[in-house]
Protein backbone atom coordinates (compact mmCIF):
# COMPACT_ATOMS: atom_id res chain seq x y z
CA UNK A 1 0.00 0.00 0.00
CA UNK A 2 1.14 3.55 -0.77
CA UNK A 3 2.69 5.14 2.36
CA UNK A 4 1.38 8.61 3.11
CA UNK A 5 3.92 11.36 3.66
CA UNK A 6 3.40 13.78 6.57
CA UNK A 7 2.33 16.45 4.07
CA UNK A 8 -0.23 14.14 2.44
CA UNK A 9 -1.63 13.13 5.82
CA UNK A 10 -1.92 16.81 6.68
CA UNK A 11 -3.81 17.41 3.41
CA UNK A 12 -6.26 14.63 4.18
CA UNK A 13 -6.90 15.87 7.72
CA UNK A 14 -7.46 19.42 6.50
CA UNK A 15 -10.15 18.16 4.14
CA UNK A 16 -11.51 15.50 6.52
CA UNK A 17 -10.78 16.63 10.11
CA UNK A 18 -13.48 14.21 11.28
CA UNK A 19 -10.78 11.54 11.06
CA UNK A 20 -9.38 13.21 14.18
CA UNK A 21 -12.75 13.96 15.80
CA UNK A 22 -16.13 15.40 14.91
CA UNK A 23 -16.88 19.11 15.05
CA UNK A 24 -13.43 20.56 14.20
CA UNK A 25 -13.04 23.86 12.33
CA UNK A 26 -9.63 24.66 10.78
CA UNK A 27 -7.89 27.78 12.11
CA UNK A 28 -4.28 27.47 10.98
CA UNK A 29 -2.10 25.20 8.90
CA UNK A 30 1.62 25.35 9.69
CA UNK A 31 0.93 28.09 12.21
CA UNK A 32 4.03 29.99 13.33
CA UNK A 33 5.13 29.18 16.87
CA UNK A 34 8.28 31.25 17.41
CA UNK A 35 11.08 29.40 15.59
CA UNK A 36 8.87 26.39 14.78
CA UNK A 37 5.49 25.64 13.29
CA UNK A 38 2.67 23.45 14.48
CA UNK A 39 1.02 21.32 11.83
CA UNK A 40 -2.69 21.96 12.37
CA UNK A 41 -4.71 24.23 14.63
CA UNK A 42 -8.47 23.70 15.05
CA UNK A 43 -11.36 25.02 17.08
CA UNK A 44 -13.18 22.04 18.57
CA UNK A 45 -16.94 21.63 19.05
CA UNK A 46 -16.67 23.10 22.57
CA UNK A 47 -14.87 26.23 21.39
CA UNK A 48 -11.44 25.13 22.61
CA UNK A 49 -8.20 25.33 20.60
CA UNK A 50 -6.76 22.00 19.46
CA UNK A 51 -3.10 21.95 18.39
CA UNK A 52 -2.27 18.84 16.34
CA UNK A 53 1.25 17.64 15.63
CA UNK A 54 1.50 14.98 12.91
CA UNK A 55 4.10 12.25 12.54
CA UNK A 56 4.05 9.89 9.57
CA UNK A 57 5.44 6.98 11.60
CA UNK A 58 5.63 6.17 15.29
CA UNK A 59 5.11 8.81 17.98
CA UNK A 60 8.27 9.22 20.10
CA UNK A 61 8.71 10.52 23.65
CA UNK A 62 10.46 13.68 22.44
CA UNK A 63 7.34 14.60 20.46
CA UNK A 64 5.45 15.01 23.75
CA UNK A 65 7.83 17.73 24.91
CA UNK A 66 7.40 19.48 21.57
CA UNK A 67 3.57 19.64 21.64
CA UNK A 68 3.56 20.41 25.38
CA UNK A 69 5.78 23.43 24.73
CA UNK A 70 3.38 24.67 22.03
CA UNK A 71 0.38 24.27 24.32
CA UNK A 72 1.99 26.04 27.27
CA UNK A 73 3.13 28.98 25.14
CA UNK A 74 -0.31 29.50 23.63
CA UNK A 75 -1.98 29.20 27.04
CA UNK A 76 0.13 32.11 28.30
CA UNK A 77 -1.06 34.24 25.40
CA UNK A 78 -4.79 33.60 25.03
CA UNK A 79 -7.36 33.09 27.76
CA UNK A 80 -8.85 29.99 26.18
CA UNK A 81 -8.67 26.27 26.84
CA UNK A 82 -5.88 24.80 24.70
CA UNK A 83 -5.61 21.10 23.91
CA UNK A 84 -2.62 19.31 22.43
CA UNK A 85 -2.72 16.11 20.39
CA UNK A 86 -0.13 13.89 18.73
CA UNK A 87 -1.24 11.93 15.65
CA UNK A 88 0.78 9.12 14.10
CA UNK A 89 0.67 5.61 12.67
CA UNK A 90 1.34 4.03 16.05
CA UNK A 91 1.60 5.23 19.64
CA UNK A 92 3.60 2.91 21.95
CA UNK A 93 2.21 2.19 25.42
CA UNK A 94 5.03 4.09 27.13
CA UNK A 95 4.24 7.17 25.03
CA UNK A 96 0.51 6.84 25.76
CA UNK A 97 1.21 6.78 29.50
CA UNK A 98 3.43 9.86 29.41
CA UNK A 99 0.89 11.69 27.23
CA UNK A 100 -1.88 10.90 29.70
CA UNK A 101 0.25 12.14 32.61
CA UNK A 102 0.79 15.47 30.83
CA UNK A 103 -2.78 15.96 29.54
CA UNK A 104 -1.62 15.48 25.95
CA UNK A 105 -4.01 13.55 23.75
CA UNK A 106 -2.95 11.01 21.16
CA UNK A 107 -4.54 9.27 18.21
CA UNK A 108 -3.43 6.53 15.88
CA UNK A 109 -4.43 7.16 12.27
CA UNK A 110 -3.03 4.40 10.13
CA UNK A 111 -2.63 4.59 6.36
CA UNK A 112 -5.12 1.78 5.86
CA UNK A 113 -7.65 3.66 8.02
CA UNK A 114 -7.30 6.70 5.76
CA UNK A 115 -7.50 4.49 2.65
CA UNK A 116 -10.69 2.74 3.78
CA UNK A 117 -12.33 5.99 4.90
CA UNK A 118 -11.63 7.78 1.62
CA UNK A 119 -12.82 4.73 -0.29
CA UNK A 120 -16.20 5.22 1.38
CA UNK A 121 -16.55 9.03 1.42
CA UNK A 122 -14.10 10.67 -1.02
CA UNK A 123 -13.02 8.51 -3.96
CA UNK A 124 -11.58 11.42 -6.00
CA UNK A 125 -9.18 12.24 -3.16
CA UNK A 126 -8.38 8.55 -2.74
CA UNK A 127 -7.46 8.31 -6.42
CA UNK A 128 -5.34 11.45 -6.39
CA UNK A 129 -3.28 10.49 -3.35
CA UNK A 130 -3.07 6.71 -3.42
CA UNK A 131 -3.03 6.15 -7.18
CA UNK A 132 -1.49 9.30 -8.63
CA UNK A 133 0.71 10.00 -5.62
CA UNK A 134 0.15 13.74 -5.66
CA UNK A 135 -1.07 16.37 -3.20
CA UNK A 136 -4.61 17.54 -3.50
CA UNK A 137 -5.39 21.16 -4.40
CA UNK A 138 -8.66 20.85 -2.52
CA UNK A 139 -6.76 21.12 0.79
CA UNK A 140 -5.60 24.64 -0.09
CA UNK A 141 -9.15 25.82 -0.65
CA UNK A 142 -10.53 24.67 2.72
CA UNK A 143 -11.99 27.68 4.51
CA UNK A 144 -10.21 28.68 7.71
CA UNK A 145 -11.41 30.51 10.82
CA UNK A 146 -9.04 33.32 11.76
CA UNK A 147 -7.85 33.93 15.31
CA UNK A 148 -9.65 37.26 15.05
CA UNK A 149 -12.97 35.47 14.52
CA UNK A 150 -12.20 32.96 17.25
CA UNK A 151 -11.17 35.51 19.87
CA UNK A 152 -13.86 38.00 18.83
CA UNK A 153 -11.33 40.80 19.00
CA UNK A 154 -9.65 42.92 16.37
CA UNK A 155 -5.96 43.25 15.65
CA UNK A 156 -4.71 46.81 16.22
CA UNK A 157 -4.05 46.89 12.46
CA UNK A 158 -7.65 46.05 11.59
CA UNK A 159 -6.66 42.77 9.95
CA UNK A 160 -7.18 39.15 11.08
CA UNK A 161 -4.94 37.82 13.81
CA UNK A 162 -2.79 34.83 12.87
CA UNK A 163 -0.83 32.46 15.11
CA UNK A 164 2.30 34.40 14.07
CA UNK A 165 1.22 37.21 16.38
CA UNK A 166 0.78 35.05 19.46
CA UNK A 167 4.36 33.89 19.97
CA UNK A 168 7.68 35.57 20.58
CA UNK A 169 9.67 36.09 17.35
CA UNK A 170 12.42 33.50 16.91
CA UNK A 171 15.01 36.29 17.25
CA UNK A 172 13.47 37.70 20.45
CA UNK A 173 15.84 39.06 23.09
CA UNK A 174 16.49 36.64 25.98
CA UNK A 175 16.19 39.65 28.29
CA UNK A 176 12.63 40.62 27.38
CA UNK A 177 10.27 40.77 30.34
CA UNK A 178 7.29 38.44 30.66
CA UNK A 179 5.37 41.67 31.32
CA UNK A 180 4.51 43.28 27.93
CA UNK A 181 3.84 46.61 29.67
CA UNK A 182 7.41 46.73 30.93
CA UNK A 183 8.81 45.98 27.46
CA UNK A 184 6.62 48.67 25.93
CA UNK A 185 7.59 51.30 28.50
CA UNK A 186 11.33 50.80 27.87
CA UNK A 187 10.99 50.67 24.08
CA UNK A 188 8.84 53.80 24.05
CA UNK A 189 11.36 55.63 26.25
CA UNK A 190 14.01 54.95 23.60
CA UNK A 191 11.57 56.08 20.90
CA UNK A 192 11.19 59.40 22.70
CA UNK A 193 14.96 59.79 22.94
CA UNK A 194 15.25 59.34 19.17
CA UNK A 195 12.38 61.75 18.53
CA UNK A 196 14.01 64.44 20.68
CA UNK A 197 17.66 63.92 19.66
CA UNK A 198 19.26 66.77 17.63
CA UNK A 199 21.58 64.37 15.78
CA UNK A 200 24.52 65.87 13.85
CA UNK A 201 27.62 63.76 13.23
CA UNK A 202 30.52 63.20 10.87
CA UNK A 203 31.17 59.59 9.81
CA UNK A 204 33.89 57.74 7.92
CA UNK A 205 36.77 60.07 8.83
CA UNK A 206 34.53 63.09 8.10
CA UNK A 207 33.79 61.91 4.56
CA UNK A 208 30.09 61.89 5.47
CA UNK A 209 28.05 64.43 7.42
CA UNK A 210 24.57 63.50 8.63
CA UNK A 211 22.32 66.11 10.14
CA UNK A 212 18.80 65.98 11.44
CA UNK A 213 16.52 68.55 9.84
CA UNK A 214 15.40 70.24 13.04
CA UNK A 215 13.23 72.73 11.15
CA UNK A 216 11.08 69.81 9.93
CA UNK A 217 9.17 68.03 12.72
CA UNK A 218 8.55 64.25 12.67
CA UNK A 219 5.67 63.28 10.37
CA UNK A 220 3.09 60.80 11.56
CA UNK A 221 2.51 58.09 8.92
CA UNK A 222 0.37 55.01 8.35
CA UNK A 223 1.00 52.71 5.38
CA UNK A 224 1.07 49.09 4.16
CA UNK A 225 -2.57 48.54 5.18
CA UNK A 226 -1.88 50.18 8.56
CA UNK A 227 0.75 47.59 9.56
CA UNK A 228 3.29 50.44 9.48
CA UNK A 229 2.28 53.11 11.99
CA UNK A 230 4.80 55.58 13.32
CA UNK A 231 6.85 58.70 12.59
CA UNK A 232 9.27 59.69 9.83
CA UNK A 233 12.09 61.95 11.00
CA UNK A 234 13.90 63.81 8.17
CA UNK A 235 17.71 63.82 7.96
CA UNK A 236 20.18 64.99 5.30
CA UNK A 237 23.47 63.39 4.23
CA UNK A 238 26.29 65.57 2.85
CA UNK A 239 29.41 64.27 1.11
CA UNK A 240 31.71 64.99 -1.82
CA UNK A 241 29.18 63.12 -3.98
CA UNK A 242 26.20 65.01 -2.55
CA UNK A 243 27.32 68.55 -1.64
CA UNK A 244 23.73 69.79 -1.84
CA UNK A 245 22.54 66.99 0.41
CA UNK A 246 20.99 63.54 -0.02
CA UNK A 247 17.56 63.11 1.65
CA UNK A 248 17.49 60.49 4.42
CA UNK A 249 15.07 59.60 7.19
CA UNK A 250 14.59 57.56 10.31
CA UNK A 251 11.25 55.84 10.70
CA UNK A 252 10.24 54.72 14.20
CA UNK A 253 7.10 52.65 14.69
CA UNK A 254 5.55 49.33 13.76
CA UNK A 255 6.66 47.15 10.87
CA UNK A 256 4.18 44.33 10.41
CA UNK A 257 2.80 42.33 13.30
CA UNK A 258 5.16 39.44 13.97
CA UNK A 259 5.07 38.17 17.52
CA UNK A 260 4.05 41.53 18.90
CA UNK A 261 1.10 40.32 20.99
CA UNK A 262 3.26 38.77 23.75
CA UNK A 263 6.06 41.38 23.45
CA UNK A 264 4.23 44.69 23.81
CA UNK A 265 1.03 45.53 25.70
CA UNK A 266 -0.63 47.25 22.74
CA UNK A 267 0.25 44.32 20.42
CA UNK A 268 2.18 46.64 18.08
CA UNK A 269 5.79 45.96 17.02
CA UNK A 270 8.49 48.59 17.48
CA UNK A 271 11.26 49.19 14.96
CA UNK A 272 13.78 51.74 13.79
CA UNK A 273 14.29 51.93 10.04
CA UNK A 274 17.08 54.08 8.62
CA UNK A 275 16.64 55.09 4.98
CA UNK A 276 19.35 56.65 2.83
CA UNK A 277 18.23 58.25 -0.42
CA UNK A 278 14.83 58.49 -2.07
CA UNK A 279 13.17 56.88 -5.04
CA UNK A 280 13.94 53.41 -6.40
CA UNK A 281 17.58 53.47 -5.28
CA UNK A 282 16.97 54.17 -1.61
CA UNK A 283 18.48 51.65 0.84
CA UNK A 284 17.18 50.76 4.31
CA UNK A 285 18.33 49.07 7.52
CA UNK A 286 15.93 47.83 10.19
CA UNK A 287 16.38 47.47 13.95
CA UNK A 288 13.73 45.58 15.92
CA UNK A 289 13.38 46.41 19.61
CA UNK A 290 12.05 42.92 20.34
CA UNK A 291 15.54 41.65 19.45
CA UNK A 292 17.70 44.03 21.48
CA UNK A 293 15.67 45.05 24.55
CA UNK A 294 17.11 44.37 28.01
CA UNK A 295 13.96 45.32 29.85
CA UNK A 296 14.97 44.91 33.49
CA UNK A 297 18.20 46.85 32.88
CA UNK A 298 16.27 49.51 30.89
CA UNK A 299 18.86 49.12 28.19
CA UNK A 300 19.62 47.69 24.74
CA UNK A 301 22.23 45.11 23.80
CA UNK A 302 25.48 46.89 22.86
CA UNK A 303 25.64 45.57 19.30
CA UNK A 304 23.77 45.29 16.01
CA UNK A 305 23.65 41.97 14.15
CA UNK A 306 24.72 42.37 10.54
CA UNK A 307 22.30 40.35 8.43
CA UNK A 308 21.83 40.95 4.73
CA UNK A 309 19.44 39.68 2.09
CA UNK A 310 21.50 37.70 -0.40
CA UNK A 311 19.21 38.78 -3.24
CA UNK A 312 19.84 42.45 -2.59
CA UNK A 313 23.48 42.11 -1.54
CA UNK A 314 25.27 38.97 -2.85
CA UNK A 315 27.10 36.89 -0.24
CA UNK A 316 30.38 37.34 -2.09
CA UNK A 317 30.31 41.01 -1.02
CA UNK A 318 29.58 40.53 2.68
CA UNK A 319 33.22 40.22 3.74
CA UNK A 320 33.98 43.40 1.79
CA UNK A 321 31.22 45.19 3.72
CA UNK A 322 32.73 44.04 7.03
CA UNK A 323 36.19 45.16 5.89
CA UNK A 324 34.93 48.59 4.81
CA UNK A 325 33.25 49.20 8.17
CA UNK A 326 36.28 47.93 10.10
CA UNK A 327 38.68 50.14 8.18
CA UNK A 328 36.83 53.23 9.42
CA UNK A 329 36.94 52.19 13.07
CA UNK A 330 33.72 50.24 13.40
CA UNK A 331 34.41 47.10 15.42
CA UNK A 332 33.05 43.87 13.90
CA UNK A 333 33.10 40.63 15.90
CA UNK A 334 31.76 37.10 15.54
CA UNK A 335 28.62 36.13 17.45
CA UNK A 336 28.46 33.06 19.68
CA UNK A 337 25.18 31.82 18.18
CA UNK A 338 24.71 28.30 16.83
CA UNK A 339 24.46 29.96 13.43
CA UNK A 340 27.44 32.35 13.57
CA UNK A 341 26.90 35.90 12.38
CA UNK A 342 28.74 39.21 12.53
CA UNK A 343 28.03 41.83 15.19
CA UNK A 344 28.70 45.56 14.85
CA UNK A 345 29.74 46.76 18.30
CA UNK A 346 27.99 49.95 19.45
CA UNK A 347 28.68 50.11 23.18
CA UNK A 348 26.50 50.64 26.22
CA UNK A 349 22.98 51.99 25.55
CA UNK A 350 21.15 52.52 28.84
CA UNK A 351 18.33 54.81 29.90
CA UNK A 352 19.91 54.89 33.37
CA UNK A 353 23.21 56.30 32.11
CA UNK A 354 23.86 60.06 32.13
CA UNK A 355 25.34 59.70 28.64
CA UNK A 356 22.20 58.08 27.22
CA UNK A 357 21.73 60.75 24.52
CA UNK A 358 25.28 60.15 23.30
CA UNK A 359 24.67 56.39 23.39
CA UNK A 360 21.42 56.62 21.40
CA UNK A 361 23.35 58.77 18.94
CA UNK A 362 25.91 55.97 18.65
CA UNK A 363 23.10 53.57 17.72
CA UNK A 364 21.78 55.94 15.04
CA UNK A 365 25.30 56.46 13.69
CA UNK A 366 25.88 52.70 13.49
CA UNK A 367 22.64 52.15 11.57
CA UNK A 368 23.49 54.96 9.14
CA UNK A 369 27.02 53.58 8.67
CA UNK A 370 25.69 50.12 7.80
CA UNK A 371 23.12 51.59 5.42
CA UNK A 372 25.67 53.79 3.62
CA UNK A 373 28.13 50.92 3.05
CA UNK A 374 25.30 48.61 2.02
CA UNK A 375 24.05 51.26 -0.44
CA UNK A 376 27.50 51.57 -2.03
CA UNK A 377 27.98 47.82 -2.43
CA UNK A 378 24.61 47.49 -4.11
CA UNK A 379 26.02 49.62 -6.93
CA UNK A 380 24.58 52.55 -8.81
CA UNK A 381 21.79 50.50 -10.41
CA UNK A 382 20.29 49.35 -7.09
CA UNK A 383 21.98 51.53 -4.52
CA UNK A 384 24.00 54.73 -4.12
CA UNK A 385 27.73 54.96 -4.82
CA UNK A 386 30.11 56.94 -2.60
CA UNK A 387 33.52 57.99 -3.90
CA UNK A 388 35.35 57.40 -0.62
CA UNK A 389 34.31 53.70 -0.72
CA UNK A 390 35.46 53.01 -4.29
CA UNK A 391 38.73 51.44 -3.14
CA UNK A 392 36.69 48.70 -1.46
CA UNK A 393 34.29 48.03 -4.31
CA UNK A 394 33.91 49.58 -7.76
How would you characterize the overall build of this protein?
It comes from Fervidibacillus halotolerans. The protein has 394 residues and is α+β, with helices and mostly antiparallel strands. It contains eleven helices and 18 strands. The protein folds into two domains: 161 residues, Trna Endonuclease, Chain: A, domain 1, CATH 3.40.1350; 210 residues, no CATH class. The chain starts with 5 loop residues before the first helix and ends in a 12-residue tail after the last helix.
Based on the model shown, name its key terms:
single chain, 394 residues, alpha+beta, Trna Endonuclease, Chain: A, domain 1, seven-stranded antiparallel β-sheet, five-stranded mixed β-sheet, 11 helices, elongated, endonuclease activity, DNA binding, hydrolase, DNA-binding
SSE inventory with pairings:
Layout: H1 6-15, E1 25-33, E2 36-43, E3 49-54, H2 61-77, E4 82-88, H3 93-101, E5 105-108, H4 111-121, H5 123-131, H6 147-151, H7 180-196, E6 200-203, E7 208-212, E8 219-223, E9 228-239, E10 246-253, H8 260-263, E11 271-276, E12 283-288, H9 289-292, E13 293-294, E14 299-300, E15 303-306, H10 318-327, E16 332-334, E17 342-345, E18 349-350, H11 356-382
Parallel strand pairs: 3-4, 4-5
Antiparallel strand pairs: 1-2, 2-3, 6-7, 7-9, 8-9, 9-10, 10-11, 11-12, 13-14, 14-18, 15-17, 16-17
Helix pairs in contact: 4-5
Amino acid sequence: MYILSEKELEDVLVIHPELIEEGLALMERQGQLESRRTDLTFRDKNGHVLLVELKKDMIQLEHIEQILDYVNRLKRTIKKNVRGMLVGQTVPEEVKNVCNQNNIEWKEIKTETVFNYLKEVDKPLLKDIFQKGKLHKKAKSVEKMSFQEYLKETSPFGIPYTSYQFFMPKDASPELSQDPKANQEVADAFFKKIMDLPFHRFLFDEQIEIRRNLESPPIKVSKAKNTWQGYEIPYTLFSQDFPEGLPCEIYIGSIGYRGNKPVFADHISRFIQVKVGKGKNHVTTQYGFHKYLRTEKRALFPYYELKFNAKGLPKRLWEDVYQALSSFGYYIQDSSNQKPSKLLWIGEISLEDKQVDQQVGNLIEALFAVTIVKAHFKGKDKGIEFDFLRSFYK
